[in-house]
Amino acid sequence: MTKPELLAPAGDIDKLKTALHFGADAVYIGMKDFSLRANTKNFDDAQLCEAIAYTHSLGKKIYIAFNIYFTPEQTDDIVAALHHLAQLCPDGMIISDPGIILLARQHAPNVPIHISTQANTTNQYAADFYKAQGADRIVLARELSLEQIRQIHLHTDIELEAFVHGAMCISYSGRCLLSTYMTTAGLGRRTDDTKTEPRSANKGDCVQPCRWEYILKEKSRPDQNYEVSEDEHGTYFMSSRDICMIDHIADLIDAGVCSFKVEGRMKSLLYISAIIASYRSMIDHICDGTPIDRRIIERELNVVSHRDFSTGFFYQSPMTDANITSTMQYKREMRLSGKVLGSSGDKMTVKVYNTISTDSDLEYVAPGLNIVKVGRIELFDRNGTPTDKIHHCDEATVRLYDTDGNVIIGQSMDILRMEADF
User: Which residues lie below 8 Å from residue 91, measured CB to CB, with a gap of 6+?
Assistant: First the structure.
């Protein structure tokens, strides 16, 4: 069985390093402009250089999301960015706009082209078309079933990538005008919205109106709300469930998917560590026979923020299963406490994300689903003085013991987490 690539999201350099540390084979990132996650940190020029160099130093791959649909006034900036990427030599650019494909072939011919899911490739002829335009990989439309993917694989020899975990968009391959409508003055924009320009999902600035709960109003009765009830759960008729294909890895491989993509460039370090470690373990189990404990994986999938899980469109049609959530609430069991910056002897330097005290109930998490319950905590401030508490955004030196009294020897990029109290 051919082992697939595990491709992780990285919204900033810390998330990139965390993803690679916890087992990703490759990462995808966005520049400050031109990617469909405008509201995450993304990477400036210096960070882009650092990210590519760091990833390549580990023998792993990095792809650049260049997947907006652009308008003529952006042409010069896009060409300049392509020249820059040609010098940095990432392992691929994820592109949806045919115009950027053309410009990429002219100005960055050394960088492989991956066709974004936004291009909604749904058949082998489209795949062959993009290959003829110089593409090396297709990120398949999320609307495809496994059988349809298998047919594409049988009739084309281009690499196929598919989303296997994370949030799904209600719109066809993510191409949506609802956010633009809802943020345009005189149409759907709220009166208290301070932004003056519409926020386009197709340029990375989606306000996610599909996640809102809606009511119906009648013009002559402005103070009266009428419920729009799809069922007893409410009116979240556009909010999709999250996708989770961790129990169907063999089926994905058999269908011809060579790269397993996890959604989440705006998600947390906690999300990345848990989800990437879980898929790493399951892929290794399926392909190499590495033993796993399915109960641990189940817990890891649920410690991080997510909606109800589904298998998307891989097995069923939306005509028979609407695949929508019943609430706006996210499910989450844990929160991030700290990240290990380094270690010396039996002590670790930790960046604190949520206040840690000597009586905190912590778990220490390392790659390979190596999760250790912390039994005792010793804290020292920046001056090395013992203390009872280290606050959010500070750094601390810690000595941790497991429940048997053994010192926990950590390494950089391991994390600490605690139960969520909300």
Answer: 26, 61, 62, 63, 112
Q: pTM, whole model, 2 decimals?
A: 0.85
Question: Torsion over CA of 137, 141, 142 and 143, rounded to 10 degrees?
Answer: -150
Tokens representing residue 32 in the block? 């400050």
In whole angstroms, what is the distance from residue 97 CA to residue 116 CA? 9
The pLDDT profile of the chain, 422 residues, written as one tens digit per residue, is 789 999 999 999 999 999 999 999 999 999 988 876 666 677 889 999 999 999 999 999 999 999 888 899 999 999 999 999 999 999 999 999 999 999 999 999 999 999 999 999 999 999 999 999 999 999 999 889 999 999 999 999 999 999 999 887 766 666 666 777 677 776 666 667 766 677 776 666 777 777 677 777 777 888 888 666 655 555 565 677 789 999 999 999 999 999 999 998 888 999 999 999 999 999 999 999 999 999 999 999 988 877 788 888 898 765 566 566 655 555 667 899 999 999 999 999 999 999 999 999 999 999 999 999 999 999 998 888 999 999 988 998 999 999 999 999 989 999 999 987 65
Domains of the chain: 5-168+240-310 (3.20.20.70), 173-227 (no CATH), 334-419 (2.40.30.10)
Q: Is 197 exposed, middle or buried (0-12, 13-18, 19+ CB in 10 A)?
A: exposed
d(CA 38, CA 55): 22
Distance from C-alpha of 315 to C-alpha of 321, rounded to nearest angstrom? 10
CB 50 within 8 A of CB 40: no
